[in-house]
Every structure is written in C-alpha cells, then in structure tokens.
Amino acid sequence: MATTNRTSPPFERAGLSDEQLVGMLRTMLLQRMLENRGFQLNRQGKIPFASASEGHEGVQAGAAMAFARGRDLLFPYYRDLGLALGVGLTPYEVLLSLFARAADLSGGRQFPHHYASRRLGIATISSIIAAQLSHAVGAAYALRVRGENGRAVLTTFGDGATSEGEWHESVNFAAVHKLPIVLLCENNEWAISTPLAKQMGQPDIWRRAAGYGLPSTCVDGMDPVACYLAVSDALDRARTGGGPTLVEAKCYRFLAHTTDDDDRTYRSREEVEAHRRDDPVPNFERRLVEAGILAPEGLERLKAELLAEINEATDRAEAMPYPGGEELYRNVYADSTDPWR
Ligand SMILES: Cc1ncc(C[n+]2csc(CCOP(=O)(O)OP(=O)(O)O)c2C)c(N)n1
Ligand SMILES: [Mg+2]
C-alpha cells in the first residue's frame, strides 16, 4: 500500500505558515536523529533498549501540529517519539528516559520510550497493546462529564492493536457516547513479525469504523501535511461536539521492531527498500526546498543545530544519577506504604 504512486501534487500547505512547515520538518529530523542516537547508545552497551519509528515521522509530525498544547490530551503508544517531541518533549527528557535516570519524568522506572508528561498532557504509556484505548476513551468521557468543551483526546496505536478486544470495546464506547476523541492508527503493515494479511481479511483499518457507526478517513502517512489536515479536521470536530473519528495513516516501519529484533528473519530486504522510496524525511525536505520555503543552506544549518542539541543532551543525561534503592516503593502504593511491613 505504501508503494502507491506518490508523485507530488502542487505543494499543498493546508493553511500552514512557512514557520509551521519548517517546524514539522524540524520535528521529523529530530525524531530520526534522536532515534539513531538511541540505537548507537544501545550498541555501545549504554542503554538496554530502544525502539524504532523510522517511517512514522510524517504521520507523527502532522498529528503533533494538529494537537492543541495545553488543551488536548495525548494517549500515545511506544512508537510515538516524533509525536512526543512535536508536542514539546525535549531531547534531554527523552534521553533521561533511555538512560533510566532519576530525573526522568517517570523517575527512571518506566520502559524506555514510554514517556509521560503532566506539563504536556501526555498520559503514561502501557506496553500492553491497545490498553491506551480504554484509558483514552475514559479521559474523553471525563471531558464530557465535566462539560469541558473545546478539548479533545488524541490516541494512537498500530495496525496490530486493532486485533485486540480492548480496541473494539473502546471504539464502540467512543461511538456510543459520541466522545471527543480522535483514534489515529499508524498502519505500518507489521506487528513485529506478523504481516497485516495475517491480522485481517482486508487491508484497511478505516473500514472497521463503519461497523461501529463512526466516521473514518484514510490518509497517506508519509505526507505530514495530509496527516495534519486529517487529524486537525477530526480534532476540530471532536472539540466542537461532533464526536469521534477514526483516522488511518498508511506508513511503514523501516527498521526492526526494536533493538532486540532482527527483521531479516521475517521480511525481505527488497520489500524494505521498495518502501524507502516513500521515506517521508528526505521527501519532505525536498518539497520544502523546491517550494522555496527552506534554502538548502538553511536545511544544513538546521541539521547541524539538531545534532549539537542531541549531543549536548546525551552528555547531560548520561551524567545524571540513577534512582536510589529507597525510591523503589515511591509512587507505587498510596500513602507510600511499605508492602513488606
Ligand atoms: C496485549 C499484548 N500482546 C502482545 C504484546 C507484544 N507486542 C509488543 S509490540 C507488538 C506489535 C504491535 O503491533 P502494532 O500494533 O501494529 O504496532 P507497531 O509496533 O507495528 O507500531 C506486540 C504483539 C504486548 N505488548 N501486549
Ligand atoms: Mg504495526
């Protein structure tokens, strides 16, 4: 699917200013470079684990641009590095999570890439596939009960998550109660080693929405502007009482599932290379340069600035201490109960 003809139509900016378009590219580049740093640190033996999101930059930068900071709530999943960066998480905060340091927003005790930020409205991530859906519809229901109009929930998940009962229950709940929520599927065609064709009898997640009675749309997940437009329309509708929408963004995972996975055991190099033609990062760079929105020198400067920022944040995070043993039960039991006494 991701290899469909993507010869660019005339540049469609969807009402976005030059600054916003360059901002989206910045998020995409930061995601790619920071993720690469995670893989380097893992191979150096400095961090135990990192996950991969190459190929998801377009959908995440577009969705982040549509998200209203300080107003909307985000219930993401583990592959959403770019979404987290796009709504305001800093590279330093990401690296504190990867290094599991005490100053990490979850006290160094979460799985790497499972960020949470009260400041940014990012709910804590569960590794249990599709668990964030029930949390997200619960939060959307709370917005409804409290009469907090003008706010919406954005939740994300993979194609594999749509095979979980929890996904179906949550989508149904959102539809029945007409909740202010956008359900964004990042369909990368794989659930670790399980291809889409082994998950469902037809390849479109968006078609599942009709069975629950909610509107849906399908978008090229390699195109950040198209993703911005789809998610922003859906969020606007949710914020103004129009109910839930399912958005499917077709993208691809270029790298292995995580640093613990070897994707050569289940998919061919030819398949991966064929999808590389649709790589959202160089394609969007080229589009901005060709449209005269960013000069080639400006692009090089941006990349150099981001690398310097990541290098500085790596050194600073690595120098921070681990949590002490006395932290073990903090924020686990109410009233800090010591479970052994
Ligand atoms: C309930 C549950 N079952 C299985 C797993 C193991 N697991 C982790 S990631 C993953 C694949 C999920 O695929 P998808 O939803 O398509 O997201 P992607 O990783 O492709 O972005 C699985 C099966 C899990 N974490 N939780
Ligand atoms: Mg997937």
What are its keywords?
binds magnesium ion, 341 residues, Rossmann fold, binds thiamine diphosphate, alpha/beta, two-stranded antiparallel ribbon
Notes on the protein architecture:
- The strands form two sheets. The chain has a five-stranded parallel β-sheet with strand order 1-2-3-7-6, sandwiched between helices.
- With 341 residues, it is α/β, with parallel strands linked by helices.
- It is globular and about 50 Å long.
- Strand 2, helix 6 and strand 3 (181-187) form a beta-alpha-beta unit.
- Residues 1-6 have low confidence and may be disordered.
- The termini are far apart.
- The protein has helices spanning 18-43, 57-66, 81-86, 91-99, 131-145, 165-176, 208-212, 224-239, 269-276, 280-290, 296-318, and strands at residues 73-75, 153-158, 181-187, 190-191, 194-195, 216-220, 245-250.
- It contains eleven helices and seven strands.
- Helix 4 packs parallel to helix 11 (296-318) and helix 5 packs parallel to helix 6.
- The protein has a single domain (18-257, 266-330), classed as Thiamin diphosphate (ThDP)-binding fold, Pyr/PP domains (Rossmann fold, 3-Layer(aba) Sandwich).
- Thiamine diphosphate binds next to strand 2 and strand 4.
